[in-house]
Amino acid sequence: MSSMHSFSPLRSSSALPTLLLGSLLHDLGKGIASPLMVLLLTTSFALNSWQAGGLLSIAMLLATLLSLPAGLLFDWFDRRHLATAALLLMALAVALLPFAQIILLVSLLLVFMEFAAALFSIGLKALLADFVKEQQRVQAFSYRYILTNVAFAIGPILGVRLAEASLTLALLVAAGASCLAMVVIMCLSKEQNPSRTSPTSGQLSLAEVPRALGKDRNLVFYTLGSFFNTVVHGRFTFFLSLLLLYKYPATQGMETLSLLLLTNAATVILLQRVVSRCITLESLNSRVLMGAVLFSAGLLGFSVSEQLSAWCLSMLIFTLGELLIQPAEYLYIDSISPPHLKGSYFAAHNLASLGAAISPAWCGFMLSLAGPNGLCYSLIACVLTGSSLCAMRPRLLPTNLASR
């Protein structure tokens, strides 16, 4: 890879805890707010579940598409300021939701909320690359992944409890968490001040970046592969709830789902650091393929499980696949992206989250067409396709785009 000339690496250890705390607060706010969106749409606007789900999927699709051009700005302006602006937008959108009186305004606020979350995710990955030494980034991403699971284990429960008293209160607390995250990220500039050099004469213009990204076969292959993988793990709670509600009465299905989510969170918290230690650039292909095998085994288990113990064992195996594939994606995109185009590369790779946006529609269609087994087999096909595309990427890392 080319030498860094846009941002200097981490000079002290104080930046990583700050970034992780900001990430935790952001995820906590989103964890509180996200499960309440369906409640807001169904109770305040009398939408049925299909209409509410469709509106949320459209909002996510639009937000993901908008995140690509917006994400490119992270390579041209101060990344800390843009990440702070994304958190402010998130806080405003969530805080205004309970006061919106027309569905059009609610729809716009949902798009802004999802867009801000996607933008902050891009910015955080770029900031981790700025402030954390290269050999420490997989561990840093693993810490972030653990904290994300902690936040999404606590956030929905807290959100539901608060909503029992007042939906407005719950959403204002979620907005407050985003505001606290914004304050934390703002403090980063006082602890560390990475210097950014002016663009050199050979550097690509902002208008040229998308075309150059499209020519990078490494990025294209990996993003396409990640898209198929994200269909499986991006919204796995949705297909699990569909399977469980198909097989069991609602009360039993939801109780089983809660135990499966607890199994998922506990596995991530306990094993993420251990698993991440075996992920290196040299072993990336084998780890991604191993993750695909574990995903497939977990999905096969879901298709035949009847007892709670079998469901939990399948969830454990499925989560181990997730632990291998998620950090591997970050490590690879970080390794192929020139330092002055970190934001652009992460923004382009964020298009893979379109897989999560279409996952609910795909899972619902396959379940109605082919039943539980057909749904699980289709998801196995997705993850095997995705992991194969990731493994088929050109082996040579691209040179600095500025020299092209």
UniProtKB/TrEMBL annotation:
Subcellular location per the Swiss-Prot or TrEMBL entry: Cell membrane
Protein name per Swiss-Prot or TrEMBL: MFS transporter
Residues that span the membrane, as ranges: 49-74, 86-109, 115-132, 144-163, 169-188, 219-245, 257-275, 284-302, 375-392
PROSITE patterns: MFS (PS50850)
Pfam families assigned: MFS_1
Membrane topology: Multi-pass membrane protein
Major facilitator superfamily (MFS) profile domain boundaries: 15-404
InterPro entries (alphabetical): MFS, MFS_dom, MFS_Transporters
Keyword vocabulary terms for this entry: Cell membrane, Membrane, Transmembrane, Transmembrane helix, Transport
